[in-house]
Design a protein that fits this description.
single chain, 482 residues, alpha/beta, Arc Repressor Mutant, subunit A, Aspartate Aminotransferase, domain 2, Aspartate Aminotransferase, domain 1, 3 domains, four-stranded antiparallel β-sheet, 16 helices, 40% helix, binds pyridoxal-5'-phosphate
Length: 482
């Protein structure tokens, strides 16, 4: 509703601060009154002298606020005359904190990309304080925070001096090329490695670069919803590919797609390892420039029972595999660093896309990480957490079998940070998840990760982030809910 001139001062509420703070507050509140339409176009404001008196502030404070709003186009001001509102509220929405309900309910016309993203059904992902047994997390309490903070500090100070720019830093690229070659069997030169804020960013970049509307994309079913979202948003037709004991199964009769997304080291969510025969079979389908494979090795660092199976990327002789990794699981998800090993033919295109979408990790964080790796802290942390998480996996399996063995059958993954427990009877995993959340245990329903009609019903349970006593308590809570 429009307000009359004499109540303007009553609508302004200034918190006493220094003069500069008062100018900013007054400018922002007047801007809000104009943007919300409460001070309509053509309405004169009180004189600076009058408003200053009503508000109990200096006249300069009001004059500076008027000048700023005139410069932004909200007011028309000429010397010696009272300023007049120059725009209608709706012409200037979004420039202030005052947003009217009608502005919120307005339905903007979205791009096809954003509309598809909104329609993509992303199952509930938990936010806020971590609760047992939320999947997908390592134990942040075990992270060497002090050492990492020192690396960060040194490199943040250095960055200001050296004027580091937003690029993929050579030191981290080289450290990663070496680490990935020795521990994951990835074959790549340093300049094929792009440093991004997350694995999800890598998927978005890949989708933006090579997926066009109506391209066919295959994803494991059940699968990773982040991949489904990234590829569907690009307009791809996403087909869920069934799994068996060996991993993704080639479906007879389907022509090779544009892209195959897979998690061969620990299938998300089942944790299964893809057999060598299947890796070879899918690699045989790939064709330079025609059928690409995206290998998401999100938690491949964690393997417990035997030597890790090398990445599929290392077997690719034709440059058809994108290899994606992240530090979210092995360090902390707040570090915001993931990486993409690009097929040689796409390096420069992906670098241009990375720059223009703005998906480059902060330079001082990249430098700090390179130092953390070079000084041996990364591998030491990995060795320690690998032992710890293996014991936690075994403990969760034992507790589930002891307390819930009659209801759940557990699939023991050879690695990773989460496991699947299937219902022996019944399908109501989503209702069970709701009951568990209310009781303080966070899990994810297996059926919510299905791309088509759900065939598996059960729970995805994280074990890495929880001490054994916490795991025991959580499983007791689960047992009381079933
Ligand atoms: C299969 C898979 N890929 C990628 C990610 C995302 O990693 P980031 O946090 O780096 O985006 C996750 C996270 O849970 C995941 O489960």
């Amino acid at each position: 509703m429009p307000v009359s001139q004499d109540v303007i001062s009553a609508l302004i509420d200034l918190k006493r601060a220094d003069d500069e703070g008062l100018v900013a507050q007054l400018t922002s509140q007047l801007r809000g009154l104009i943007a919300s339409g409460r001070l309509g176009k053509g309405r004169p404001l009180p004189s600076s002298r009058q408003l200053a008196r009503d508000l109990g502030v200096s006249r300069n404070t009001v004059t500076y606020a008027f000048e700023q709003l005139a410069a932004e186009g909200y007011l028309e001001a000429s010397h010696g005359r009272r300023p007049v509102v120059a725009v209608d509220g709706h012409e200037r929405i979004g420039r202030s904190g005052a947003v009217e309900p009608s502005m919120r309910s307005a339905r903007p016309r979205l791009s096809p990309w954003a509309s598809r993203l909104e329609q993509t059904d992303w199952p509930m992902s938990y936010q806020g304080q971590l609760k047992p047994l939320r999947p997908g997390h390592g134990d942040f309490r075990e992270f060497p925070n002090e050492v990492w903070a020192r690396c960060l500090r040194r490199n943040a100070v250095g960055a200001a001096k050296r004027g580091l720019g937003p690029v993929n830093r050579a030191r981290l690229r080289e450290a990663l090329a070496h680490y990935l070659a020795t521990s994951r069997g990835v074959r790549a030169s340093a300049d094929q490695i792009m440093i991004l804020p997350s694995a999800q960013a890598a998927l978005t970049l890949i989708a933006a670069t090579i997926v066009a509307a109506d391209d066919e994309v295959w994803i494991e079913d059940p699968g990773y919803p982040g991949a489904v979202a990234a590829f569907r948003a690009s307009g791809a037709r996403v087909t869920g590919i069934r799994l068996d004991e060996q991993g993704m199964q080639r479906m007879p009769g389907l022509a090779a797609p544009k892209l195959i997304f897979m998690t061969p080291s620990h299938q998300h969510p089942t944790g299964r390892l893809m057999s060598l025969a299947r890796r070879t079979e899918f690699l045989g389908l790939s064709r330079p420039g025609k059928t690409w494979i995206v290998e998401d090795d999100y938690d491949g660092e964690f393997h417990y029972d035997s030597r890790p199976v090398p990445a599929l990327q290392g077997l690719d002789a034709h440059g058809c595999v994108f290899y994606v990794g992240t530090f979210s699981k092995v360090m902390t998800s707040d570090i915001r660093v993931g990486y993409l090993v690009a097929p040689p033919a796409l390096v420069s295109t992906l670098e241009i896309a990375q720059r223009h979408i703005g998906l480059i990790a902060a330079s001082h964080v990249q430098e700090a990480l390179a130092e953390f790796i070079a000084d041996g802290h990364f591998l030491a942390h990995l060795r320690r957490t690998r032992r710890l998480y293996r014991a936690r996996r075994d403990h969760l399996v034992e507790e589930l079998e002891r307390q819930l063995g009659a209801k759940l059958s557990v699939e023991v993954p050879p690695g990773g940070i989460q496991l699947v427990a299937r219902f022996k009877r019944g399908r109501a995993d989503q209702a069970a998840v709701k009951r568990l959340v209310a009781a303080g245990v966070e899990t994810r329903a297996l059926s919510s990760l299905a791309l088509g009609r759900p065939r598996d019903h059960g729970l995805l349970l994280g074990f890495a982030a929880w001490r054994e006593s916490e795991i025991s308590a959580a499983v007791r809570t689960m047992a009381s809910c079933f």
